[in-house]
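Weekly sync, protein design subgroup
Attendees: M.S., D.O., the rotation student, P.L. (late)

Item 1: inverse folding check
M.S. brought a backbone from last month's batch and wanted to see whether the design step gives back something sensible before we order anything. D.O. pointed out we never logged the input encoding, so this time it goes straight into the notes. Structure tokens as presented (78 positions):
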């Protein structure tokens, strides 16, 4: 498989996943208190939103790369 076609398919897949899950969540642990053998930690949940425009740009770029990969591949075969 040509690299252009493969990257295009990968971009389409990532764009669709970003459209389906519009935010990235992660949990951060922080040590709040340490007094000898006693420790206290706090978990904080953070969310990073992914704008829909970024997702659509990934999908459109992927479609463009797939189109370029297909047309370049068909020109070599006559």
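Designed sequence read out in the meeting:
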């Amino acid at each position: 498989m040509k690299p252009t076609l493969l990257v295009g398919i990968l971009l389409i897949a990532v764009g669709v996943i970003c459209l389906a899950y519009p935010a990235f969540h992660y949990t951060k642990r922080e040590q709040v208190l340490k007094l000898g053998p006693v420790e206290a930690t706090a978990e904080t949940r953070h969310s990073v939103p992914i704008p829909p425009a970024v997702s659509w740009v990934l999908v459109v770029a992927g479609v463009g790369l797939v189109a370029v990969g297909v047309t370049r591949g068909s020109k070599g075969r006559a």
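Discussion: The helical segments are 3-20, 52-75. DSSP finds two helices and two strands in the chain.
Action: P.L. to compare against the previous round before Friday.
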